[in-house]
Model the fold of this input.
Amino acid sequence: MNQDSSQKIIPPEVLLDGYRRGVFPMSETRDDEDVNWYSARQRGVIPMDQFKVSSNVERIIRQGRYECRINTCFRDVIEACADRETTWISDIIINSYEVLHLAGYAHSVEIFDEDDALVGGLYGVSVGAAFCGESMFKRATEADKVALWHCHQRLDERGFELWDTQFYTEHLAQFGCVEISAEEYDRLLEKALKKEVVFD
Done:
């Protein structure tokens, strides 16, 4: 693992406890040496039976333009998600989630092109039957949306009940994301935590 031994991390048990309580960590910048924990009065979720993608994305999937892999290059995915002008994904978060990945709770959906180059993907955390999506990226046309489609396929097949996006955005709304109250989210999370499913 590509980690300086002096690098501070969030212990896996602390991260998992946070997700089980409905809170998640974010940093201010890429080189921020600390994290803050957040929740929201209104939460974004994608109901499993309401997920959708555009006809263009469906066509790309049918054409087999990209290959999807799961958990083969987690660190590459999270670093690609952090590689933007402003980001909440700091080195502390990258290293912490890599440890969580090695423990079997953080996962990556990876999209490769015909030249075997990583061109899109996403990562998130699974607790019980809840999947908490964290971030996604693309380096090729619609590759991030193709990753979302494959993620939904896996969540649906494995019996996940709650797909948490943390915040509702207009961008996520095109995939079926809706906004619910914190109270409703807590109820759904409590129910999902009672069921044990496996992402990978």
User: Anything to note?
Assistant: The two ends are 20 Å apart (CA to CA). The beta strands are 24-26, 36-38, 42-45, 67-70, 106-112, 118-127, 130-138, 162-166, 178-181. The longest strand covers residues 118-127. Residues 45 and 164 are 5 Å apart (CA to CA).
